[in-house]
Amino acid sequence: MGNELNAKQQKTIMIIEVNDMEMKYALVFALLAIASLSYAASPSAAKGQGLNAAMDDVKCKNDFTLGVIDSIKSAAPDGSGSLDAVASTLQADESKLQAYTDSKDVDGFRSYLKSNYNPDLRTAKSDVQDWRKSAKNLSNNTRESLRTSYNDLRSTYESCNLDAVKAHAQEKVQWYESELDNAGAKADNLSGKGIDTSNLGSIISDARSGIVSPLSSAIDSATDAKGIQAALKQYCLFDGCTDGDNFHFAAKFETAKLDDVLTKLNANPNAQNATAHIQAAQDDLSSASSLLNTLGMSQASDSQQTQLWNSIKDAATNVKEAISEMRSK
User: Fold this and answer.
1) pTM (2 decimals)?
2) Residue 114 above 80 pLDDT?
3) What are the CB-based long-range contacts (under 8 Å, 24+) for 72-81?
């Protein structure tokens, strides 16, 4: 899942009574709330997104692996006792992972999956292969029964795995749509305060047409899990595709939003009281925009992410300082 998470930082400012002198500062008061960042400095997939689908995939793998072991035990009960221990381990692992899923403990799930379940699954596969190598005295009927059982289990697994991967992918599309809808609401809020948000609208529209729509189409048309996984690696709204298209939505939206706020501030007669912070904010946003242009659709390195978000955060701080100076004079 890639690395994309938003933060709610907007405040509600109520101005109950405003005299003539205060009226010209009303917009500035409102902008102070808007200057906060809407997204965390390191956007990532929403915590918990896809957890149920990941658990479904574990069940698919366990049903297949335990089914293979059961077929071996049925066909050759006298020589398959060595597989009992690994079967019990996988069943215990599934119960543990289900508990993490039920409690929405994403970190616990991921840690257990990596440190326990995946190694145990590899051990089970190795043990089954070792059994097959050592089972040299099986009758042709027994071998044919095992082969038929394996093929049936494999077909069931592929169907199960496809459903699980598709469910995860569809959850990701829904999350992306939710992020864009939330951004649209923020743009509408700014527009209601007299700020030109056409740039924000364009960013949201481009993100939907360039990332979300093609991702959704690729998922719908995929005929196997590999096709869906390829689509997920190709289209990232934020910054998680190593060799695919990264839209850098959070950074683009924040940069444009702060730029729109600065444009409105510059139109205020009192902007002359905060020229230093306004200029500093413009320089910060210029640095962020330049880096975004350099990145294009490429994935940002850790250092580029740090540089990009430091520039955006510094711009937000300077905008807030500019607003504070405009209010005090």
Assistant:
1) 0.73
2) yes
3) 72/128, 72/131, 72/146, 75/138, 75/142, 75/145, 75/146, 75/149, 76/135, 76/138, 76/142, 79/131, 79/134, 79/135, 80/131
